């Protein structure tokens, strides 16, 4: 068993993080809310990193590289639909949507889109325009065509998984910002980090973030080798846990940063607002949990005691 | 990156499940019951494991062990705990007394004790905690006063699991009250039938044998019974306990109980309230994460950069234990409190709930684990 990322992937992760930090990090994402050029520049940064040459569907190395690239994009709130473009079909970006209320992150960018729901039903898309929302500022309501075929279930699973890696990055970065804040911020004559209540709160968030990262590595490492039923359950499991861990860690960050964390000049505010689209969409964590129920009985949700599922 | 336990570990899991299904009676809930047949079951099972080289699987072959890989050891931990620890109290001798003897024992101590432990012939208990020293073991007060060539030990131990069953004890006592805290303690290997030792069981919600008091009244101990150097007990104790730092594979029993409960419910599972079934989903997710954190800690166990990996695994695992206990009680509703063989899963659910209450207390409280994670994350403030 090897639970660490391969060395070359770890190196690529460091390079990707450095490049996206150089692009501007969450503050660049903030400016992108009002300056479209920054989204074009974000694409250039991704292109420099070879993002759009990655073949995530058939190369496990490329998939791992895409995962850590998404992690870096999540940590910097990169204002670009990276997952959607990496998962493009015939050049059209692929968005996962809830047909009851379709919203597409960065759906206003030039280029064509297709959409799929979690069942893999495919739709043609007519995006409208952005709504200047605080939460998910790049979300665009869209109109869907009637069902127009399907996308492979594997594409849905990959999409959910890579989106979860973006959440992993955001979670880790929020924890790091919180760590820096409580070590530096003095209250009652000593750093916040010396108060046991603060230490325990940070410890709980750290364990949650660490657990999510292990789950993300595990999920992506076996996505190509497990039966389809197990793969789909794995992707739902990861996305559900990513969403709920993000809620916990963001709450911790806001609580410990106090009013500062609500200000856009704090990266926590930007990370929070910009990650909400991944946490809440295409469906809530409660809906994800409901979708996992059949897997508990049919073995798709693998445990130490579940029976084998046919390949 | 791969999460393959390896063919040998996968085969071991199958073999252990076969052995357990053949030799452990249905409804077995461990050695800590009022039925002496349960203790007898563990004794015969340990001897059978020993004869197959599986009891001391983790030990090097030169010490009578099986030389198993860390992933075989992990599977052994998972399967034993999932099936209510059919090794009974012997796991303590196997998991840390033996390894401590390997590292610190004299040739005579090894010759005397190791083959007996590997053969499943002896139960050990651990005389560490005291009424005034639980988590802060360096503060314990039991005194070993020089007497002739050896010492006489007087004091009181508490929460001592298996003390009534055990024939030997690793006993911590203060040999020099004036020394710096780290050098006050020494460890002694003491037979439990020695004059001056009195064991009093403590009735508890956990069940029999889990908790005892051990009174020590001028117990004579000898130089050849000191484990490690005199005054070095604190270091030996810390290192010995580190052999178990990943902790019990509680996630495995939780996964087993959920699987068995689902089987028992059959189609009625679909009729459970939606809120219960989605809690079930979340419990299984948290158990998967606890298992992955444990695997991460195992894979880093010889890595100096491991940091608080084991503490993170323990926090995740112990909290899952209680989460699943509550979930299963809520599944059972009005029959949750029923116990004994006629209760759900032969009483395993009720038994699990009671024992899970100690999960975040035993073998290092969750607060200590949080302190270790915080120290790694935030530095040594506070």
Task: List the SSEs and their pairings.
The complex is a heterodimer of chains A (311) and B (382).
Chain A: H1 7-23, H2 25-32, H3 37-48, H4 60-75, H5 82-86, E1 93-96, E2 103-105, E3 113-116, E4 122-127, E5 139-144, H6 153-184, E6 186-187, E7 190-191, H7 196-221, H8 228-257, H9 267-280, H10 285-298
Parallel strand pairs in A: 1-3
Antiparallel strand pairs in A: 2-5, 3-4, 4-5, 6-7
Chain B: H1 7-23, H2 36-51, H3 70-82, H4 91-104, H5 107-118, E1 124-127, E2 143-147, E3 150-158, E4 168-174, E5 185-191, E6 197-201, E7 212-221, E8 226-227, H6 233-242, H7 250-265, H8 274-299, H9 309-332, H10 348-356, H11 366-378
Parallel strand pairs in B: 1-4
Antiparallel strand pairs in B: 2-3, 3-7, 4-5, 5-8, 6-7
Helix pairs in contact in B: 1-3, 3-7, 4-5, 4-6, 7-8, 7-9, 8-9, 9-10, 9-11
Account of the 3D structure:
The complex is a heterodimer of chains A (311) and B (382). Chain A has 311 residues and is α+β, with helices and mostly antiparallel strands. Chain A has helices at 7-23, 25-32, 37-48, 60-75, 82-86, 153-184, 196-221, 228-257, 267-280, 285-298, and strands spanning 93-96, 103-105, 113-116, 122-127, 139-144, 186-187, 190-191. Chain A has a five-stranded mixed sheet with strand order 1-3-4-5-2. A two-stranded antiparallel sheet of chain A has the order 6-7. Chain A starts with 6 loop residues before the first helix and ends in a 13-residue tail after the last helix. Chain A contains ten helices and seven strands. In chain A, α6 runs antiparallel to α7, α6 (153-184) packs antiparallel against α9 and α8 packs antiparallel against α9. Chain B is an alpha+beta fold. Chain B is built from eleven helices and eight strands. Chain B has helices spanning 7-23, 36-51, 70-82, 91-104, 107-118, 233-242, 250-265, 274-299, 309-332, 348-356, 366-378; strands spanning 124-127, 143-147, 150-158, 168-174, 185-191, 197-201, 212-221, 226-227. In chain B, a hairpin with a 2-residue loop joins β2 and β3. The longest helix of chain B has 26 residues, at 274-299. The mean pLDDT of chain B is 92. Classes of the chains: A alpha+beta (311), B alpha+beta (382). Chains A and B meet through α6, α7, α8 and α10 of A and α3, α7, α8, α9 and α11 of B.
């Amino acid at each position: 068993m090897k639970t660490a990322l391969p060395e070359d992937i770890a190196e690529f992760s460091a390079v990707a993080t450095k490049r996206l930090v150089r692009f501007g990090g969450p503050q660049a994402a903030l400016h992108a809310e009002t300056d479209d050029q920054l989204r074009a520049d974000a694409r250039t940064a991704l292109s420099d990193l070879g993002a759009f040459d990655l073949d995530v569907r058939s190369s496990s190395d490329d998939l791992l590289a895409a995962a850590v690239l998404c992690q870096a994009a999540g940590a910097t709130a990169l204002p670009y639909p990276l997952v959607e473009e990496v998962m493009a079909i015939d050049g059209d970006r692929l968005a996962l949507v809830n047909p009851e209320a379709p919203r597409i992150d960065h759906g206003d960018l030039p280029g064509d889109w297709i959409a799929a729901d979690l069942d893999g039903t495919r739709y043609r898309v007519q995006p409208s325009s952005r709504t200047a929302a605080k939460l998910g500022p790049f979300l665009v309501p869209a109109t869907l065509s009637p069902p127009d075929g399907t996308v492979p279930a594997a594409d849905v699973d990959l999409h959910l998984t890579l989106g979860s890696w973006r959440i992993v990055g955001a979670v880790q970065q929020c924890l790091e910002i919180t760590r820096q804040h409580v070590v530096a911020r003095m209250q009652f004559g000593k750093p916040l980090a010396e108060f046991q209540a603060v230490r325990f709160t940070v410890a709980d968030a750290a364990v949650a973030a660490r657990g999510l990262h292990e789950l993300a590595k595990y999920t992506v490492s076996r996505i190509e080798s497990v039966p389809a039923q197990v793969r789909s359950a794995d992707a739902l499991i990861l996305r559900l846990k990513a969403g709920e861990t993000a809620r916990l860690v963001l709450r911790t960050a806001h609580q410990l940063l106090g009013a500062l964390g609500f200000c856009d000049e704090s990266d926590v505010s930007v990370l929070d607002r910009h990650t909400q689209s991944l946490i809440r969409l295409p469906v809530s964590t409660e809906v994800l949990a409901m979708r996992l129920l059949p897997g508990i009985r049919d073995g798709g949700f693998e445990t130490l005691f579940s029976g084998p599922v046919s390949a | 990156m791969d999460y393959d336990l390896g063919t040998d570990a996968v085969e071991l899991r199958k073999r252990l499940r076969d052995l357990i299904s053949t030799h452990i009676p249905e409804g077995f809930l461990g050695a800590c019951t009022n039925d002496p047949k349960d203790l007898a079951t563990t004794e015969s099972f340990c001897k059978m494991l020993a004869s197959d080289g599986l009891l001391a699987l983790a030990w090097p072959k030169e010490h009578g062990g099986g030389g198993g890989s860390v992933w075989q050891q992990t599977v052994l931990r998972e399967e034993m705990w999932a099936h209510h620890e059919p090794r009974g109290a012997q796991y303590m001798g196997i998991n840390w007394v033996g390894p401590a003897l390997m590292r610190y024992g004299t040739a005579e101590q090894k010759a005397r004790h190791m083959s007996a432990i590997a053969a499943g012939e002896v139960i050990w208990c651990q005389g560490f905690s005291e009424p005034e020293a639980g988590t802060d073991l360096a503060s314990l007060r039991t005194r070993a006063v020089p007497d002739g060539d050896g010492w006489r030990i007087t004091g009181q131990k508490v929460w001592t699991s298996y003390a009534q069953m055990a024939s030997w004890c690793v006993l911590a006592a203060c040999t020099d009250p004036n020394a710096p805290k780290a050098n006050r303690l020494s460890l002694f290997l003491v037979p439990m039938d020695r004059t001056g030792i009195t064991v009093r069981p403590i009735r508890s919600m956990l069940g029999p044998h889990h908790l005892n008091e051990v009174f020590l009244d001028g117990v004579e101990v000898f130089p050849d019974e000191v484990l490690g150097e005199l005054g070095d007990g604190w270091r030996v104790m810390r290192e010995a306990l580190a052999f178990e730092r990943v902790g019990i594979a509680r996630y495995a029993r939780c996964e087993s109980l959920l699987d068995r409960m689902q089987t028992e419910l059959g189609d009625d599972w679909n009729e459970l309230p939606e809120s219960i079934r989605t809690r079930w989903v979340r419990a299984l997710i948290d158990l998967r994460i606890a298992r992955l954190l444990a695997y991460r800690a195992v894979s880093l166990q010889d890595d100096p950069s491991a940091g608080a990996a084991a503490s993170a695994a323990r926090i995740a695992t112990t909290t899952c234990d209680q989460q699943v206990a509550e979930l299963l009680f809520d599944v059972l509703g009005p029959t949750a409190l029923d116990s004994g063989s006629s209760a759900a899963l032969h009483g395993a659910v009720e038994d699990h709930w009671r024992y899970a209450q100690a999960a975040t207390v035993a073998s290092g409280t969750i607060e200590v684990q949080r302190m270790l994670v915080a120290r790694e994350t935030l530095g040594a403030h506070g």
